Amino acid sequence: TRMDTSNSHEIMINETTPLVPAKGSKKPKTPLPKLQIGLLITLQLAEPIASTSIFPYINQLIRELGITGGDDAAVGYYAGIIDSLFFVGQALTVLKWARLSDRIGRKPVLVIGLLGTCISMLCFGLSTNFWSLVVSRCMCGFLNGNVVVMKTMMGELTDSTNMAQGFALIPIVWCIGGFVGPLMGGTLARPQDHWPALFSGSFWRNYPYFLPCGVAACLLVLALVMMTIFLEETLSTKRRPKFTSTTVSVSSSPDRELLVKSSMANMPLRSLLTRSVVIPMTNYAMLSFLDVSFRVLLPLFLSTPTYLGGLGFDPATIGLWMALVGITDGVFQAFFFARITDWIGPKRLFSVSVWCYPPLVAMFPIMSWILRARGEVDYTITFALLFLICIEVIWDMGYGAVFMFITASAPTNNVLGAINGLGQTSAAVARAIGPALATSLFAVSKEHNLLGGNAVYIVLIVLSGGLRWLAYQLPDEVPDRD
């Protein structure tokens, strides 16, 4: 214990307090809290599995419900609306959930989010018309603040020395979910066709897409139980203090620290919108817009009949290809993201990722041209899809990089939830616009043969230029959070 003789206050020091390194020296990396982060990423895994499991069959579901009146080219309009509704709901409420988590704690908000997602998935599986699909997706968006809370918890479990390792896990989890979800959705959709002896009842004929939704709901319940029992609260004002033998009492006023933290947590949002906060958020929003546009176009392109310029795959084949995208992406992120970040830095990595978007989108018309030239789906299409996966792996590293900039922009950890909430709100707005815009442009391009049916790809490539400009505005280094 050291005494501050000028103010006659004791300063609390415990065995976890880092020493200030000499100027110019590199801080040693703090070991990650493996148990808590392991639990956190397990919870995160349930979300992408649930959200991506609908992708392989959503276009076929829309056709079977008769929404388009038999017009295959119009499927994109309705698929885009359904994909966008989740993000509309999230954009309207995620900031409220983030601010609430700064006051009542992270775990209570996670409970609400997991329950809301579980109920909405069950409703989606029981939907028999377009409006029931709309209600279930809106419910999922309104009740779900999990993404922003989990990012906030990751920020609270890491510091400036191990942030790259921690945030590298977030896209990895989504990649693994992107592997399991489509594979599960494509395989379990219409189970009466695949396993007629097990699923021969009238229920499965009336609700042929309930099984993947029900399995996703069970995973969410399991995640909820694990979180309730094992996950610790990370909000400093709500967690129980852990005293060690070297901890001493008390500093100047027992309530002073809590008072400062509480006042920071209730800061007006406008005061947080500084340039150092807005620039990373804008990059995240634009990245989300372009990424979700690509992700909704991929299954739509794969399922579109060949005479309209698609590949004409069935849901099971789409699920396999999207699963391959997810697992390849996840493995690469797990082994190489932190190393590449340490090697070239977060800003340069983000810039490299951004430059991959034009060739990524250009693969769609290239595959259409190959299919017309070859007359059938053969090994050349397979190689083209594998090349697309390689480009997407590099593109996805942009998420881990921009998360580091957003987290480091928070003035204190007690407004980290609000900062992540603002970022997630901007991303949710972008993701609400992206699917409807991209799929509608796809449908219009095909219906009216705009630029040979490729107008949607040209528009997205042009818009990616805005993200390249925004990437240059990021600081050269991630600010030191400590």
UniProtKB/TrEMBL annotation:
SUPFAM superfamilies: MFS general substrate transporter (SSF103473)
Protein's name according to its UniProt entry: Major facilitator superfamily domain-containing protein
Keyword Chloroplast tagged: no
GO molecular function: transmembrane transporter activity
Pfam families: MFS_1
Gene3D superfamilies: MFS general substrate transporter like domains (1.20.1250.20)
GO cellular component, one term: membrane
